[in-house]
Amino acid sequence: RSLPEPLDRRIERLLGPQQSAQTWVSMTPFVPPRFVKKRGRNTLAGQINAELESRGLPPADIIDVLKDTSIALRHYVRVRHHGGTPPPADLGFALRIRFTKTISGPITLGYASHFGLGMFEVE
After folding, report:
1. What is the pTM of this model?
2. Which of the chain's ends, N or C, has fewer CB atoms near its CB within 10 Å?
3. Helix/strand/coil for 60
4. Cβ–Cβ under 8 Å, residues 62 and 115
């Protein structure tokens, strides 16, 4: 948090304010790790909450799929073409996730989150 300008603002968006934040929004697309179903634990919300639970975070109170997102989110590579297991479907979502209590970042969720997909910033 003690980086020089403009890096300090960018890191603040990723980590959230020092007192944490309740609302987080997609910086990069969330790619579901399993096929999205209409009911059961593999719904979009079910998969997001499973990802949060696997990281020791509480379940989301509200999950909004954002329709009016930046066109830049559509241009991310969401599928591995050489090696590795591809996601079940080539689709990504821009999301707003709200928690009942404040959460400290960074938050990354979903398929290839360890490669930069599914990254969230403070709204």
Report:
1. 0.78
2. N
3. coil
4. no
